[in-house]
Every structure is written in structure tokens, then in C-alpha cells.
Amino acid sequence: MAAERRPRPASFWFLALFFCAFVLFLYGPMFAIFVLSFQGPEGGLTFPLRGVSLHWFRQLWEGIGTVDIGAAFRRSLALGAVVMVLTVALSLAAGLAYRKRLPGGTALFYVVVASLIMPSIVVSLGIGLMFRLLDGALHGWLEAHAPSLAEGFVSTLGLFSSGLGAQLTWTLPFGLLIMFAVFNRFNPAYEEAARDLGATPRQSLQHVVLPLIGPSLVGIGMFGFTLSWDEIARSSQAMGDLNTLPLELQGLTTTVTTPVIYALGTVTTVVSFVVVGTTLAVVWAWRRRGGGA
């Protein structure tokens, strides 16, 4: 005889309603932008939808005024890739260093994590000011010692100098915290077994540690890329003359009054989902390969 199904308490329905409201608040605006980006040529920035077409994506492809969206897109991709690689490499190195007695490690940890607490715009202003001071000092030195080079000198502010540093202040603390969590759960018996079998420290790292923590490193890489991909506040004063895609998008919100800006938002969101999907596929394949070994 089947057991009688008991009615759910009122608290269950309250929490379920709260969760649905949270999901709607989280994804509702993004879904609205996604739908409005497919407006017809006569469509505006709000509902109702006036036709369905790819008109605004075609407008985006052809360019928005003087803004070169394609170049900004490529700059963001390139910067995100560099940030991703450096975040993985430096987070791994820091995680390995903290597994042993690291002189000054506690103070260094607080210094790194403090970057998450400080307002992003303040960090950006500080980095921009520091590089402008460096520009002044370097230009003065060049005028005194190499006048021919001083004429061609413009600025040290740039995508892969100050911009890269600004974004690493955002991604590295997250990468370090993830590595702490990974190594706290890592069983050192695997390394001890490798050493008992005659493996050197390098062989133990290469053939034991890295394969085991590989999926986590892929996750850190995804974290680094996605954080860089949509970063605005820390990049706002540190990018120099060439803006990334989020900064161009922020600028367009005050000048563009057509759904083409929604089309741009849809494209950038799709790129983020592609990165997340690719990461999950790589992690799945990695674990499947490890399980079959």
C-alpha cells in the first residue's frame, strides 16, 4: 500500500517563491535584453516587440558610428586570454608555495585578499596615477639621455601593461583562494607514494599533482577569463587610449538609442556562455580520461 503523501509545509512554498523571485531577478533582465535584440528595424529599446529580425546584429556587424566594435572585441579576447594564463600560472605557483613554510606568507595573503575589499574604482585610479607618474619620470629621463627616443614616447599606460595589472588585482585573489581550497582537500599520500616509487619532486608534480588538480586549474582559467571579459571599474582608468569591449559598451549606453546595444550585449553574453560551456566540456573530458586510466 502506497504511503500517504503528506502536504508540504507553508515554509516550503515561501522559500520556493523566494527562490523563483531570485532567479527572475537574476536572469530576467538578461532575457529581456536577449529578446529585444531581435527587434525588427522599426523596434525600439522597450517592449512591445515590433517584428523579429537579425537587423540589429547586422547593424552591429557593420559598425556603430566611430566605435570599432570588432577591434574592441578582439582586444578583450586577447586580454582575457593573457589574464587567464597568468591567473592560472600565478595561482598555481602561489598555491604550491603556501603548501610549505612561506616566510611572510600570512602578511602576503592579507595583502592579496585586501585587493578584493578595496573599491575597484580606487584601485583603478591608483594604477592610472602610478603609470602617469612613471610616464613623467621616464619622459624626463629620455629627454636628458636619449632625446631621439623621447620624441616617440607616448605613454606606458596600455592594454597589456597597466590594464593587465589592474585586472590581475581582481582575478588573482580569487585564483589563490580556489587553490587554497583545492590543496586543503588534496591527499599528500599520492605524492608520498610517488616518492616511494622513486619519483623526483618534478616528476611527482608533473605526473601526480597536476593531473589531479587539473580540472580545478581549468576552472581557475575560466574564472580569470570571465572576470576579465566583463571587467569595467578596475579597467576604467588603466587602459590608456584603447578600450576593451565592456568599456566601449558602457560608453555606448549614453549615445546609442537603438537595439543595436542589446545585440552587442547578447553577443558578449553568448561568448561568456561559450567559455563556460567549453570549460565544463574540458573538465568532463579530463575527469572521464582520469576515470578510465
From TrEMBL:
Residues 73-279 form the ABC transmembrane type-1 domain. Keywords: Cell membrane, Membrane, Transmembrane, Transmembrane helix, Transport. One of its GO terms (cellular component) is plasma membrane. It is found in: Cell membrane. PROSITE patterns: ABC_TM1. It is a multi-pass membrane protein. It holds the Pfam family BPD_transp_1. SUPFAM superfamilies: MetI-like. The keyword Membrane applies. The keyword DNA-binding does not apply. It comes from the Bacteria. The chain crosses the membrane at residues 12-38, 77-98, 107-131, 168-187, 208-229, 260-286. GO terms for biological process: transmembrane transport. Belongs to the binding-protein-dependent transport system permease family. CysTW subfamily. This is Putative ABC transporter permease. It comes from Rubrivivax gelatinosus (strain NBRC 100245 / IL144).
